[in-house]
UniProtKB/TrEMBL annotation:
This is FAD-dependent oxidoreductase. Keywords: Oxidoreductase. Its EC number is 1.-.-.-. GO terms for molecular function: oxidoreductase activity. It holds the Pfam family DAO. It comes from Streptomyces hazeniae. The keyword Oxidoreductase applies. It is an enzyme of class 1 (oxidoreductase).
Length: 370
């Protein structure tokens, strides 16, 4: 690396934090820019916290295999943050599922997933309206614990982290990049790693690089109180519900593929209003009405959930590949659209370890070629 340079990592969700730590371990001088006041403040925290093993993607083997690849590496790296002491069941709906029970079993066997068949009516809680049930070894991530761990690791690392600093632009300057914030040019770097997720294309377009359309979704994951021991219920494969423990909090996360999406836009950029961390599309009355629809969809399969009570909501933008409804493909991608400029695109927290390795490999290849 040149004396004037270093590596800028934009975004300090789990992918930005892990990439920064890995780069710093390799001897690179790293500066992290995060517009929020703490790491994991948006998409990394505002999700289902599922530690994916691949069960969720029977229509896209690539995504499933990436999940299998990432699962054990994440568990090893962040074992303290992984919650495994609960039954976690997957079920195939009797109606409107995109896969049949046999297709789902064939998929699980084909990618080498381990499971135990279970009678849905004997599961706790009993699950209705499904034709197949299985116990899995999937876990969840306690994101509050993960955030604390990453804060400690970043504090102990040589990386410089600038919280509350919004990157307004990235400009090419010959073989280097100027990172501009509201205060002006914050530094000139030899490489930039864009881990902003929903804001990736904005910076990419500024560099004159291709920025393909994405499907942007503003979602609400509901935090609920429910008088039941920790348990997971995921109904496949369509516009159904997921219930998972909210880390070790004693509460649950309730999500519905359709009703939890408050807005959906397919474009090259997300709506600019979504960049505001305080942005919300529903007032309390609207939020409770939306929760009612999510709960109605959930009790179709888990009748005992009718006693669940709304506690809080995790809301924010997420991004998936556009026009993939036929396969539900959700791969993670670490790419270099231009020399020295790397983008990380993923909604799977447990892919962050291998993605960090890919970032290091790409930065090393770029700096070695200079």
């Amino acid at each position: 690396m040149s004396e004037a340079g270093g590596v800028a990592v934009v975004g300090c969700g789990v992918f930005g934090a892990v990439a920064a730590l890995r780069l710093a371990e390799e001897g690179y001088r790293v500066t992290v820019f995060e517009r929020n006041r703490q790491p994991l403040a948006q998409a990394s925290f505002n999700n289902q916290n599922r530690l994916h093993l691949g069960f969720h993607y029977p229509r896209d083997r690539t995504t499933a295999e990436q999940c299998i690849r990432g699962y054990e590496r994440f568990r090893k790296e962040f074992s303290e943050c992984v919650v495994t002491d609960f039954p976690n069941g997957y079920f195939v709906a009797e109606e409107d599922s995109a896969v049949t029970p046999q297709e789902y079993l064939d998929f699980c066997d084909g990618v080498g997933l381990t499971y135990e068949l279970v009678e849905p009516a004997r599961y706790s809680p009993p699950v209705t309206g499904v034709s197949l049930g299985m116990l899995t070894e999937e876990a969840v991530i306690d994101c509050a614990h993960l955030r604390d761990m990453l804060v400690r690791r970043l504090d102990a690392s040589p990386a410089t982290v600038r919280f509350g600093t919004d990157v307004e632009a990235v400009e090419a300057r010959g073989e280097q990049f100027a990172v501009r914030t509201a205060d002006g040019v914050a530094g000139v770097f030899d490489a930039v790693v864009n881990c902003t997720f929903s804001d990736t294309n904005r910076l990419t377009r500024q560099l004159g690089l291709p920025a393909p359309d994405r499907q942007y979704e503003y979602t609400a994951v509901f935090v609920v109180d429910w008088d039941h021991p920790p348990v997971g219920v995921t109904v496949m494969d369509g516009k159904f519900t997921t219930l998972l423990p909210f880390g070790r909090s004693g509460k649950f996360l309730l999500y519905h593929v359709e009703h939890s999406v408050l807005e959906r836009v397919t474009a090259d950029l997300a709506p600019s209003a979504w960049r505001d961390p305080d942005f919300g599309t529903l007032d309390r009355t609207g939020l409770e009405a939306r929760f009612g629809r999510v709960l109605e969809g959930a009790t179709r399969f888990v009748p005992s959930l009718r006693t669940a009570r709304l506690h809080d909501v995790l809301h924010g933008p997420r991004v998936v590949l556009a026009r993939r409804d036929d396969t539900d493909a959700r791969p993670s991608m670490v790419e270099s659209p231009g020399p020295g400029y790397i983008t990380v695109f993923s909604g799977k927290l447990d892919h962050s370890v291998w993605a960090g390795d890919e970032v290091v490999r790409m930065v090393r290849a770029h700096t070695a070629a200079r």
